Request: fold
Amino acid sequence: MGLWLAAFAALSVGACHFSNNAFEKNVSIPRQEWDSRFRPSISLLITDTSSPYNISIVIRHSNAYHFNNLWFTLTLEQPGGVAPTSEQFEKTLGDNNGWLGTAMDDIYEQRILLMPNRQFPHAGEYRFTIEQLMREDPLQHVFNIGIRVEKGK
Reply:
């Protein structure tokens, strides 16, 4: 029994697969303090290179978050010896009327579309790495950061 459990645990650490045309993985931020040296990486196995995909970032933060926005870099490593690519983003989390996204008590979550209808040119494992670029370091009151990938239409 222990051998089967160990084998299952080892398999679940690798690249994740799609189910129901969507994939989402979130990483907990230690102590809700996102240090710029902590760069979560999320791997995904792509087998269908003919479909477009919508790539979103998922952020969960508290009402005490100090800013209305989030600056970050998203780095994408591709299979096939392709050099990694990085892109900077600045996304709005709130405005003068309050926080955007869905709320449960004082916790807010948003899924923000970054790359609509993105094609993956090669089958294989893709790795997304997220680096926060905010002036507050560590960035306080962030619970989770993640990636959501859905097949487009």
Q: What stands out?
A: The chain has one domain: 16-151.
